[in-house]
Amino acid sequence: MTINELQDNVIEEFSAFDDWMDKYALLIDLGNSLPPLEDKYKTESNLIEGCQSRVWLQADYVDGKLVFQGESDAVIVKGIVSLLINILSDHTPQEILDADLYFIEKIGLKEHLSPTRSNGLVSMVKQMRMYALAFRTKEME
């Protein structure tokens, strides 16, 4: 599936709920479905700066595509990490760099997060794009 198809699925899933408490519950479920990150990846270098809670993000380059793994110690943030991983993982660095992550606006995520969580979301996206840029640069060498 393309990044946009995956985003459209998320938008559809969230549009089934009108109440933000239900949407938060969906985020928590998504976070709970995220496989735990191995301790060897819970390092300072994988810790995302700018997040209120602790968020780790691991990126591996497998067969020309980035595979992300992540975890957070906060349940809602873990759900956000899960959303980003589901949408961006298993795509090429160029696809990730070209992606317009419109789902964030469409599901109302930014406006329903506290300012610090919203900053954390921006930091997570930025870090995923930095990994994509780094691996794309390696591809071109």
Task: Please provide a written account of the structure.
This protein has 141 residues and is mainly alpha-helical. It has one domain: Sufe protein. Chain: A, CATH 3.90.1010.10. It is 55% helix and 11% strand. The protein has six helices and two strands. The protein has helices at residues 3-15, 20-33, 75-88, 93-98, 103-106, 115-140; strands spanning 55-62, 65-72. The chain has a two-stranded antiparallel sheet with strand order 1-2. Strand 1 and strand 2 form a beta hairpin. The longest helix is centred in the last third of the chain and has 26 residues, at 115-140. The chain is globular, with a radius of gyration of 15 Å.
Mean pLDDT: 93
* SS content category: mainly alpha
Number of domains: 1
Low-confidence stretches: none
Summarize the structure in short:
With 141 residues, the chain is mainly α.
Key descriptive features of the protein:
two-stranded antiparallel ribbon; single chain; globular; 11% strand; mainly alpha; Sufe protein. Chain: A
